[in-house]
Amino acid sequence: xxxxxxxxxxxxxxxxxxxxxxxxxxxxxxxxxxxxxxxxxxxxxxxxxxxxxxxxxxxxxxxxxxxxxxxxxxxxxxxxxxxxxxxxxxxxxxxxxxxxxxxxxxxxxxxxxxxxxxxxxxxxxxxxxxxxxxxxxxxxxxxxxxxxxxxxxxxxxxxxxxxxxxxxxxxxxxxxxxxxxxxxxxxxxxxxxxxxxxxxxxxxxxxxxxxxxxxxxxxxxxxxxxxxxxxxxxxxxxxxxxxxxxxxxxxxxxxxxxxxxxxxxxxxxxxxxxxxxxxxxxxxxxxxxxxxxxxxxxxxxxxxxxxxxxxxxxxxxxxxxxxxxxxxxxxxxxxxxxxxxxxxxxxxxxxxxxxxxxxxxxxxxxxxxxxxxxxxxxxxxxxxxxxx
Length: 388
Fold this sequence. Notes:
This protein is 78% helix and 0% strand. The protein has helices at residues 5-8, 11-15, 18-44, 51-58, 73-105, 113-122, 124-151, 157-164, 166-197, 201-214, 216-253, 261-271, 280-289, 304-348, 357-387. Helix 3 runs antiparallel to helix 5 and helix 7 (124-151) crosses helix 8 (157-164).
């Protein structure tokens, strides 16, 4: 590595890896499934919805719109939990991809996907609790502001207290703004910090604060660069995928015959795609990149085989879309790993890619513990078999 911005430009190439895309694919798929289940639960708990109406309106992925969709407060709470699950699983996926990237940069090209996933699951507390801790601190400070507002309603004493304490209150509000920036950054870079340093929650938060304070402008500019590379990579792969779909449609429909069975199957598959939310800016974006979502698709019945084939093609559309997004997530995760590795070298003059003897000893001890656990499991199974 050169330990400058040129390393960030390698993110698109390093992100184009079957292992990393597969981890991103699993993360997005599992997160989407959990989100969809909780969203269906949120909708069906509302008296205005049942699961059939939700299916007809949203198909696989329900997306309620605040201010447009009518649901009780507890339904919105469940829906928010679904979003939280999706975000947390995505963070774990980023952590696994960052670990695979980190080992690759150290020279281990054969680091397995399962090992990266195991590492991320093992360090889930540091990855997930880092932003949660900041959310709790931010909420407590905001609650203190509300309490001061209540105190201010006390005649005479309240106005005097707020006037005397106004500067500390303003400084607290300024610190709250700073914490909000750190919170946003923790969602971006915390998984990569854990993947490269094996840090706990406290150390991860310390590193997030340190990187922001010591390398502010490099961090901002490089994060924008990684976002651009992720968007560019996703767009390029999406365009190639779109051309592949058109070629597939042309090749199969060319010999479909007078029954036009593939035309029916294709249109039925398009019916399974999610509907575009009725928001102007969303409709404008969808109209430029995915105009298919704005067109009404009618269901046509021919026979059970065509119906089932259309369902399978509709599922395939979703899986291909997740694959395209997974490449963007892979680029993003690699970029975060590169950013943190380079910035640590700049601010601390510390090369995270150097392999130390301590790391070899730790890996040896971990392998030894795993072997001991496997031997214990085998012995317990043998004892059970003997007892039976």
